[in-house]
Structures are given as C-alpha cells and as structure tokens.
Amino acid sequence: MSDVRSRGSLVCGAVGTLLVLGATLVHSAGQIPDTAQARVQKDSTQDVELDVAELPQFDTTFPPYTFRPVTNLAFGVGETLKFSIGWEKIVAGYAQATVTEVVQRRGRTCFHAVSTAHSTRLFSTFFNVEDWAESIFDAREIIPLHFEKHLREGKYRADQVADFFPEAGVVLTEKDTVPVPPYVQDALSLLYFVRTQPLKVGDTLYVDNFSKNKSYKLEVRVIKRERIQVKAGTFNTLVVEPLLQAAGLFKHKGRLTVWLTDDRLKMPVLMKSKVIVGSIVAELEEYTLGRLARY
What we know:
mainly beta
C-alpha cells in the first residue's frame, strides 16, 4: 500500500507540473469547490485599487514596456479543453481549462481563463487533489493583469495571488513588490501566449514566466512534427519541450514534452513528464473551440 501511495502522490502531484508549464494550463473535469467558485466569481469583477503612478519604479536592466499587440488566431471565449491525467495506464485525475469570458480590468479588455484539477475517487481515498487557478490577461497583448493559484494536494497546500502592472514593470504579491521584465507571463497565460506564436521545427521561443515571487526565463524548443492519436481524435502535431532555466521551480523535476496541433489553434492534445517511476501523461479527451474576435 505504501508503494501505491507514493506512486499516487507522484501522479496526482505532477498535475501541477504538467498543467502549469506550457501545456500546464489545464486542470480538471470536475467542479470547482464551492468556496473556490465564489472566489473566482468575486475576483472576476474586482480589481486592485492602485494607480501605476503610485507604484515604485525600479532601476533595472529590463527594457521599458511598450504596447505589443499579438495576433490571436488560436483561441477565444468558450474554448474548453478536458484532459485525463495518469501514470502509465492508470487514470489518476482529470483536468480542464476554459476561457470563460471577456472582462474589463484597468481599462483593458481581458480574457478570463480558469483551470481546475481533481483526482479520481479511487486516488482521492489516499491522495486527494483539488486544485484551481485563474488568470485575467489582456486580450490584445496576451499579458496577465491578475493570477491566482490554490493547490490542495494531499497534505500539501499552496496559495498564490499576484497582480501584474506591465507599465510599471512590477508584480504585486501578498508579501512583496517584485520587478519583472516586460510581457512576463503567469503560469496559466503562458500556454495561451505560446499558442499565438508562429512555431516551426527547429525554432526556439523564449518567454519570461513569473512564479513564486520570481521571474524565470522559459525556453520552448520545437523538436519535430508527429501525427498522434489521443482520446479526442487523431492530430498532426508539433512536439515542443519547455525548459526552465532555473532549478527547483516545481516539486517534480524532469523532462516535459507537449504535443500542439500543427495548425492555427496550436491546441495541446498530449503532455508527458518523465518521473522516477515512468511518465505522467495528460491526454486530451474532449474539446470545444472558442469564438475568435478582435479586441
């Protein structure tokens, strides 16, 4: 039983690693807990009452922020991606990511994306997972203004709330004000931004990512093309590998591989993360495409 428990911990705990890193965006096919649901609804209408002029201006080597429009032909409101998550052939949990609506934040038109993750009933008996996260990011620049993450994985608890002020080059957390480079992404907006980029085999994309009160450089390598079959269907894909240029950002270290559809959607259909006992796999089971619009 102890061996099963440790493997279950690896499988379910790796949900956060898989779904918060590049394709990590997603989290579960279950319902958000009532308290979390209320928090999501509350946060979608409220904002931090601060003006950019009130924030400290940091003398850093970061370049200044300038308006950066992004052409988005990949996703829109209503897009829903549902994944099963497992170790080898064992399904340990489910995950879901949804672009729920368009909201206004600080005079900007933004997408509101919500992700959830939960373990199956069987795994929940010895390692329960109930995670959720949300990101509110500018619809024209695909840069975040607000991010929250609340992880409940066994006895592990982690909460993060961050408000991004790109004009000032800072992120406000519950404990600190952190200088960041322009266009830095949160863990949830990251994949949405990558999906808007023109990727081809041999390319390397560099993206700044904010997590745990620090910004990290993420290197996304496009390895090859591959036609694969998953539960949601058969797809021509681009195989990409996101590589963090910092150690210890996530609890589970190892190689992460993501399969994105080789079309304008660049929809994640498969994710694999190498761990000690094999591979953790997130496989697309169902999807609903979003409505594209100009903002």
